[in-house]
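ugh ok fine here u go
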Amino acid sequence: KLMFMAGWHTHLLQEHVNNSAGTFTTVDSGYFDVFTAPGAPLNLQAIAYGELGFRIEYDPSEIARLKPLSGFIVEIDFCTQSGSDSGSCATRAVAGYPEALSLPNKPLGSDLYTGGGRTEEVQFSYSPTTGGAATEVNVTLRPKDHIYGGDELRIHLNYPGLYRAIDYSGSCVPEGSHGSLFTADINANTSVLTLTAVSGAEIARGQPVTIMLPLACEIIYPDNALAFEADNAHLGSNHTKTNLADYQSSRYGTKALSPPMRAIAYVVGPVDGSTGDNCKNVTCTVSSTKVLPIVQDSNTMDLTWSGSLQFGAVGVACDSTIGVPEDTSSQTFPNKRYCSMASTGSNDLDAYDHVEANPSNIFVTSNYGNSGQNGKPIGSNAGRAGRPGGTIAAEVTQSSGTLFVDSSSLCRAGGSTQNPCMLPSGEEWNPAVALSYNFTGSNATTMTVNLRRDERCIQQGTSFTVPIPLGKNAAGNVSPLGCSVVDGADAALSGWTCHWIETTWEGTLVIYAGSTICPPNGGPAAAVITTTGDLALTSTSGLPSRAVAVSNNNAGHATLIVRNGASLASYTTLSGDPVGNYAASTATLAIAANDIVSLRVYAYNGRFRSPAAETPVQTRAILKPTAPAYFSDSAQRSVGVVLSYSQTNASVATEITIDITAPADLLNGTSLNVPLAGFSSAVSPVRDIETGHAVFTIGQWNSNTSVLSLIVAPNTQASQAEHYTIIIPSSAGILYPATGTAAGSVIAMIATYTINWVTPFPIVSRPRKGFVVQMTTDRNWNSDISTLLFADKLNNAADDTATLGYLQADVGMTDLNITLLEPGTTNPTYDWLVGRYIKINAEVLKVTNVTDGMLFVLRGQISTAADAHSQATGGGTCACDSAGAATGTGTTGLTCACTKVYAYYISATDPSVGRYNGFDLLVGTAGNNPAAGTDGCRIGAIYWPLGCNIRVPPVAYSVGVRSFQSAVLQTGQAKLNWLTNCGTEGSTCTGVCDCTTPTLLSNTDLGAPTLAEDPLYIRNTGDPLQWSNVPATTLALTIPSTTVQHVILTDSSIVDASYMRLGDELVYVHGSPTRGVTNVILYQVSGNSANGDPCTCDLLGNATGDGTCACFPQSVMTGCTAGGTLQTVGGGGLGFSATFTVANPGASGYIDSITITDPGYGYISIPEIRIESGGDGCTLQEGQSFIAVTSRHTVTVERGALGTTAVTHAAGTAVSVIHWPLRSTRNSPGAQYYFRIAAYNDAGLSDYLYYKHQITEMSPRELPTTGGQTIEVTLEGGGHVVGNTTVYIGHTHLNGTLDESRSKVCQSLVVSDVAGTRLTCVTPPWVGRSHDLLVRYKSGSIEKLSVANNYVSFPAPTIKIIEPVQVTAGTSVIITITGTSFGANNTDVIGALRTSTGENPCAPLTLISDTSALCYLFPMTGQQLDGNIVVGVGTPWSGGQQNSTASGIESKLKEFDPPA
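structure:
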């Protein structure tokens, strides 16, 4: 409380006391809380999130008794976009692209990638950490994008957590490996550190950057006790113990304050440049400001920030633990923001504040001083704590607010019913985890969690909650649960803790990070956590192998997601009331695509509003990216292999030597399939052939497919351009061909695929971060789906480079190591380049290792050629000094220059395709914004320069530019655990799951693909036992022999004409399920069991099932002397057989077992069962008979398929379905993968594009019979490699496959569009009324056949003249026929003389050429030679017959008139 004094010598307080207040008048105030404004929010950032929405994140500053925190005020400024270079948010040209593309300018640096909001994550460390003393500040970061000269990194250091005196006048020069590339400035009023890249600086993304601010910068480490070292010690001439204490006095009341270990750095580009996401020229001229509903947490104390975050209200009463059990009114905002009641240390002597004087005031709970919400005084006089007369304070009046109730997962996915919505306090971006277990019996006794976080550090203190649906531990909750932790390099970590917590529906493993792990060179931040405590874990739904962990920084991190249509509010900041006149608005937030905004957030408490935290970078409202337009093709990678053999005797085992040069890095598990036509083996398959080779350690042989598979061993790789010799020993039993000579070289297929596709160039309202590619072996997209990520950062063109330095020495064409000179850096490390690419002149090189600053490389990568590179160019005496500056004099007309070395980044967009390095303007004749139904791909060479827009309706190319993407899919790549399989929540789908729209897994975030721990494994097409199989059902009946071909399943609903796997045996299913006999019984059953299961009877008539179960008749058969066999009679089926055995042979003998050896098939009714043989003397009792029990789940199979071995199988054996279709059908000819892709950005994912191979048009359609016609075919997915495509004129078999005997190849094929939409070929000579156009695409295991039915015809034959035109009646004659379109094949042509009485066939008709034929006529007695010659061309084999016209003088043949 305060004492107010009036009178003489009021400064003489002691005199006042001594004189008993005789010369003074004093008034004491009531008791009140002393506090100041809360600290401004920290690490504020805003990015586009969801369509027309933003994700706003920030951290609360330190909360203390002096700085209570009630909530936050979020304001959105909409920026004016002038459209001119001199106005607000001025646009700048897109850097790195050819002018010919005419791309529109953009205002924000990352407009094509994220839509703005760029920040970088920065880590700090300090030395020394002496409170009140100057400290060295180490700043480290790994930028997500390049940093250029003039770019600023603005970092808020949490005022006054780190600061220096306002009157500092020293010199602060950054040090460290990259210190000389930056200048440093610290704003002492705001504690904002600004690091500015010096002119000419260029820092590549992904490069570790270290900057140290030395002691001379006089940055003061915080001191909680307000004690400082002696005057001027480490502090500079303007720092003294006294003025520092005064300066830091505003921190009074804080405790345990530590400087930031992590912060967000805003990347602010020069206003006259094109980098950075700040608006250029005039930054952001505000056109309007919108206020969101204010944000509170769910607890009632303002000394913490925790729990679920809410809008507009707390909605709960003060906790009873702070002394107000009587307060049960559940008052809501703005009345219950803070409760500070009944402090026993505030001895209020004013009787008016006593409980007995305030019987109706619920806030007066003791005879001590009381204060209201957020420390506001209670009472009619603001100087008093109580209210005379006991009336209730005005603050008690109730008001309403909105409690946020939606789930975190819905909020993240953009599907929340609340708008805006918030994640619970502390929750941040969630990572995916991979899970594995060790079992004792059915219980998991240890659990291992592989945690990975890409681009973000795992911060100390963060918790990760891993859900295990229906997970139960025998010991229940275990907290703490022992666990050991290592990082991605297997280094042990300390301080981590684990806890097992379970509820009725879910068990969770909660992991607390005890240290900070940042992404290492070339990979994500990773930790492997293995439990060591008391676990005996089970789950009725099965223990998952993957999960999404909920991440919480446990420091109050706030995440608000706002979308178009969000609720708004208004307020006025009054003296002592920061949210005065607060009211919800009836208006809603209107966000339009391309709106650019800035964010501002205040913290507030009962009396004060903090300074604003503002984003100096802007963010754009965006939409989902444009979907990919179409696939160009998909291909399997191949390599030439040289073969040699130890002996060449027919059908004798031979040693096989294989020589190969790896065309690319082949990671562990990759298979190489070598075709060995004609080879065989006595046993197949032959697995685990030991080669003795260090890389290809194991081989596998399958005689059925004639393929030898070589597998790259675990933890190894075959390196690009390396030569390998592998020997398969003769002991493997692979036999040299029985006839002919084995090939000396073949093309081997690698289990690696390349897909190519086309996408419209991104626009600022639909930026693109990259693509997700899904691949599966299941053509129905039900199972075996792998998801991969391919980034597509087009801020700096597809050929994205950043300067690393200069060559230190010349590089020869075959040199495999280089050294760099990087001016401006101190002892730079290049370890981060391992596995990445660099570029020198036009050559791309891959860095394989770095030792002592020397880079070891692979030459000529990414479709470039190895070349020699000089350190200095220009000839003459040109050289380079240590600073990278050129010296000397060049050859006449040439300028000396130092050769730069660039970091080279691969995007999905492929700069080797298209006229403009990944792009072209050939968007088709439909224009940039085609209307539905417009022809976008016109036939004819005159339209080729316009391009082809193959889709109907055509794809909209908003800026008139096509971009070309390529992705290589190979074993070992990191997979994603981000998307469902077309479901809304889980990862399963039933039926055909080729859905249109991707959906996120629960608790994942938009625009932030989460990596899975398990890498991609591409299945080996040469080994059938490695093919994908999905558990489908079980055997209902034992398969007792290796020859039985009828199998009864418990469920045949998903088994059709396909392959099934039973153990290590594959069987092929013929046709649809039918009816077979699954059991034979002797008794009729009746009654109901006790447990609801069906009643049954055994062969002795004993009922099972309890309850009222009974068997009829009650007696047992007698007289059996020997066992025998059973057969069926009637029922319409075939193939049944069974055996039976007899117990007690003789007068009391009876059948004690019946074994079905073949269930048969095709029964349409229940058959009669009779004894076929044996069973002598068996006498059935009255009412007893053999009764067949049938099943409609009987399938007919081919045993031991694809080289596997037929064996017996017990009932209950698991049966899996193999989805790869292996009996050829159109478009599904064999073992192959299927692909779909979608583009993504922070707004979401586009629709899927599925790989399609489809003909759209052909011209001309009528072809000359002579051949030689160049035809043009437009199609989708046609490919760009000529050797993979074949065009046929012909026909298909009934099953849709190519009938090569009735088809002819169109020769001289040319691909005229790199996007695979146009090709030409020269037609063969042929005839016929109607043919199909067929285009077959084949690349390894990928094979597609597209058919355009009845597209092709050939003209009917015509006759122009015959000779002679008159003949002698009754004599043989040869008629020469001249005409057109007779064809080139005599078997396709027939002829006849058509007369009034019938036809006289040409016997024969001899084809001379397409225009000439001879008809031999041999008239019978009385047969006329007066009529028309008719030529018929074509047969059913060649497309159908067409005849010449049977009239007209041209074909008229007459007999000479008889002599007169």
